[in-house]
Write a structure and sequence with these properties.
about 240 residues; mainly alpha; 6 helices; about 60% helix; disordered C terminus
């Protein structure tokens, strides 16, 4: 596996953070939180995320360890295309598409993160307990599942009429809440992935521990004269004991 990758984990995280932030800003500064607007924003977010995952599977993940990115790209592409059909942009579809997105991507990232963390723990007992890539994958996967649970708790037919003095009467609907919840999810993901992408990386082979698609840990090469703690070991002389 090459030490330098064309599209490293840092770039994947920053790209995802940028488009999550765009989605959050579009929802935040939109006065219309209808199903049509929510699905339009979600469709663009999901399709671009799918493209990032596909590029990551091709350019970032090593051979044999690309399955999380491939599955994430498929899930994002399918939900994004379904949400992108204008004739289908209804309130029930928003709930179905975003809940499906949250469950599928959440489970994939959560499983990939747990597998990576377990593999590193079992392969190197003295290594870090939670490598950065695994920790971030677990966190983002958990947020996706939390998004799905939050939307499941919002009734699609919910409507609350209220009045604000000198402003008028308004109606808070289930779709308004749902679109706002998705916007909050996108904002939180943008912050966490942005921090992860801008955080300093360890040098050397330890940087490879941060790949969420990787289930293997970096091991010192055979015959290496340096331990993980940095202590230098000596090699016995070939003719030890000879005159």
């Amino acid at each position: 596996m090459p030490a330098t990758r064309t599209f490293p984990l840092r770039h994947v995280q920053l790209a995802r953070a940028v488009f999550a932030a765009v989605a959050a800003l579009m929802i935040t500064f939109s006065a219309d939180h209808s199903a049509a607007v929510g699905l339009a924003v979600f469709s663009g977010f999901a399709l671009v995320s799918g493209l990032i995952f596909a590029l990551a599977a091709w350019l970032s993940a090593p051979s044999g360890q690309r399955w999380p990115y491939v599955l994430l790209a498929v899930a994002a592409g399918l939900t994004g295309m379904a949400a992108g059909v204008p004739a289908w942009r209804t309130t029930p579809l928003f709930f179905v598409a975003v809940i499906a997105w949250g469950v599928l991507t959440g489970v994939i990232e959560l499983v990939a993160g747990l597998r990576a963390r377990r593999a590193i723990r079992t392969s190197d007992a003295d290594g870090p307990a939670a490598p950065e890539g695994a920790r971030d994958a677990i966190l983002i996967g958990s947020l996706g599942l939390l998004l799905a649970v939050a939307l499941l708790c919002v009734p699609t037919t919910y409507a609350l009429n209220y009045t604000i003095a000198q402003a008028g009467s308004f109606t808070l609907t289930g779709i308004t809440l749902a679109v706002g919840i998705f916007g909050a999810y996108a904002a939180i993901v943008a912050v966490f992935l942005g921090i992860a992408g801008l955080s300093p990386r360890p040098s050397g082979a330890a940087a490879d521990l941060g790949d969420p698609a990787s289930g293997s840990a970096a091991r010192p090469s055979a015959g290496s004269g340096t331990t993980t703690a940095g202590a230098v070991t000596t090699t016995p002389a070939e003719n030890e004991g000879s005159a």
